[in-house]
From TrEMBL:
It comes from the Bacteria. SUPFAM superfamilies: Glyceraldehyde-3-phosphate dehydrogenase-like, C-terminal domain, NAD(P)-binding Rossmann-fold domains. Pfam families: GFO_IDH_MocA, GFO_IDH_MocA_C3. This is Oxidoreductase, NAD-binding domain protein. The lineage of its organism: Bacteria, Bacillati, Bacillota, Clostridia, Lachnospirales. Residues 4-118 form the Gfo/Idh/MocA-like oxidoreductase N-terminal domain. InterPro entries: Gfo/Idh/MocA-like_OxRdtase_N, Gfo/Idh/MocA_Oxidoreductase, GFO_IDH_MocA-like_dom, NAD(P)-bd_dom_sf. GO terms for molecular function: nucleotide binding. It comes from [Clostridium] asparagiforme DSM 15981. PANTHER family: D-GLUCOSIDE 3-DEHYDROGENASE, UDP-N-ACETYL-2-AMINO-2-DEOXY-D-GLUCURONATE OXIDASE. Residues 128-252 form the GFO/IDH/MocA-like oxidoreductase domain.
Length: 341
């Protein structure tokens, strides 16, 4: 396998996870990074080139791929710059801030023919992979409902540290697009094609910010499955994400980094089926599957099986927008309305 020369645009918190993952991979060399803050250069290993202007980096370096780890409002311009130069992209979530931007990015993908993959690493968590396998087997009967719960803690210090997070124009939303996006992505993967969405978004505690601190939604899927979502950042701590799938013969629940099964005839009889790997430190909620996802990205570039989540597959941005629109307009949003945008 050839050695891929790689760059990173944006050296914020999540970029450390990308850098750590790249350091574990053979045939991938972190060649250059870009960040507007010159002091970020001090974080880099010797030999990695540093730029404050990412377009200069893209022009000066012969890069095979770039990881984009920027604030949300900068994703589309950075992807556009890479697309026009034929540079492959691994894009941190969220891909974009809304469906209009998503359609622009999907058009870039079709026009320029570069690889544009989105970082939905939690799809690769062993608990979620096993859950999809068990539901798909048919052994437990028809899927009836799915539930996702994301109850975390974010105070004003979090938003003051990076004011763009509090801005609709720069973040595109709050708890849904920032904290609960993986949970919503998993719900839509489990449930299948969406028929309609009803939702409410509000600010229960953080009145000073433009973006929501709380959201709830009811999702109807084409196959009759019912989805329920609740997300908030108003709690005193980050609680475990919970994803549940109810089948005719029993229920599966992902919680506290484990997948549990309870038969319908005795829901108190829970069996642990598999556990997730956990990241060390305080960012365990990132999930430990970044390394696997990033390895798969480069294996795809090398011509092996394509395991990437293409920008064309990204449904969660439109789901978040549908929940918000339902709340603002006070009505059910049909999924075909989102597809027509």
């Amino acid at each position: 396998m050839k050695t891929f020369k790689t760059g990173i645009i944006g050296l914020g918190t999540v970029s450390r996870t990308h850098r750590n993952a790249l350091a574990q991979l053979d045939h991938v060399e972190l060649t250059a990074v870009s960040d507007v803050k010159p002091e970020k250069k001090d974080e880099l290993p010797e030999g990695v080139h540093f730029y404050q202007d990412y377009e200069e980096m893209l022009d000066q370096e012969q890069l095979d791929a770039v990881h984009i780890c920027l604030p949300h409002y900068l994703h589309l311009p950075a992807v556009t710059a890479c697309a026009k130069r034929g540079i492959n992209v691994l894009l941190e979530k969220p891909s974009t801030m809304n469906t209009a931007e998503l359609r622009q990015m999907q058009a870039l993908d079709r026009e320029y023919g570069f690889k544009l993959a989105v970082c939905f690493q939690n799809r690769l968590n062993p608990t979620f992979v096993k859950l999809r396998e068990l539901i798909g087997s048919g052994e437990y009967g028809k899927l009836l409902g799915v539930k996702g719960v994301a109850i975390w803690s974010r105070n004003m210090g979090y938003y003051n540290a990076a004011p763009w997070r509090a801005s609709m124009a720069q973040a595109g939303g709050g708890c849904m697009i920032n904290q609960a996006i993986h949970t919503l992505d998993q719900l839509q993967l489990l449930g299948g094609p969406i028929r309609s969405v009803n939702g409410q978004v509000c600010n229960l505690a953080l009145k000073e910010i433009e973006v929501e601190d709380t959201a709830v939604a009811h999702i109807d899927f084409e196959n009759g499955v019912t989805g329920t979502f609740f997300g908030t950042v108003t709690y005193v701590k980050n609680s475990s994400i919970e994803v549940q799938a109810v089948c005719e013969k029993g229920s599966f629940t992902i919680k506290d980094y484990g997948l549990y099964y309870a038969p319908a005839e005795n829901e108190n009889e829970k069996t642990l089926l598999v556990r997730d790997r956990r990241l060390p430190g305080s960012k365990t909620y990132y999930g430990a599957s970044h390394v696997e996802l990033i390895r798969g990205f480069y294996e795809t570039l090398a011509g092996h099986e394509d395991t990437c989540v293409s920008i064309q597959e990204d449904k969660v941005i439109s789901l978040i927008e549908a929940i918000r629109r339902s709340s603002l307009e006070g009505r059910t949003i049909l999924w075909k309305e989102m597809e027509e945008q």
